[in-house]
Design a protein that fits this description.
The chain is mainly alpha-helical and 129 residues long. It has a single domain (14-125), classed as Arc Repressor Mutant, subunit A. It is 59% helix and 6% strand. It is built from four helices and two strands; from the N terminus they run αααββα. Strands 1-2 form a two-stranded antiparallel sheet. A hairpin with a 3-residue loop joins β1 (66-69) and β2 (73-76). The longest helix is centred in the last third of the chain and has 41 residues, at 85-125.
Amino acid sequence: MAHSSEASTAGVGYVQIAAALRSRLRSGEFPVGARIPAGRQLADEYGVAPNTVASAIRLLRDEGLITSQQGRGNFVRTLPSETGEDSADFTAVMCKLDRLQESLRAVNARLDDLEDEVRGKRKDRQPAT
């Protein structure tokens, strides 16, 4: 049963997967104590890499909604609030954080390029010995 309508597969990130899973928890699809599908199954369901699902699971764990048991799986610990305001705010912050991290990576890459360029010019100016 694909849930790609909840998180369109075009550009799906872990925050969107977490939001879709949160919605499924809220709907009662996975009650407290229930085991949620395995990461690989969710990755196939949403058409994403297993690492993307792992990040979504980590986010839900950080929110206190699920608990992970080594070798057994991930289980629903508590349900999200009915209004979803807290989780919606958290999701918005995480989206902004993702964009900031992407921007920072781009700045760091550009800085690395500039440093390499400066090093190259310094080598060109060194007198021959």
